[in-house]
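RESIDUES AND SHAPES:
===
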Amino acid sequence: QVQVVESGGGSVQAGGSLRLSCTASGSVFRIHDMDWHRQAPGKQRELVAGITESGATEYGDSVQGRFSISLDITKKTVYLQMNNLNSDDTANYLCNAKVLTTVGVRSFWGEGTQVTVSS
């Protein structure tokens, strides 16, 4: 069993910052990559940022230059530093972890953490 748990969401005013965390636990032998996605009501889920075990990163166009993703392999935890937030960033932020388990590489989702930005 693998559990993925996000934390750090909340309410913030436009221009503010938040730091999200996501930890994979359980039968995790190795992290391949961990990603943050977000979904707002009535909108499609979109990739926010991703990072591989080697440290390669990618960002969605709308967050480039404002968000930063980092990975602590030893803690199996990925962080998302979000700066200069605006109302378009309001969404449920979900973490996806691709990990090596006893039955091979599998993908696991957390339940998400809500971020609300007020203008």
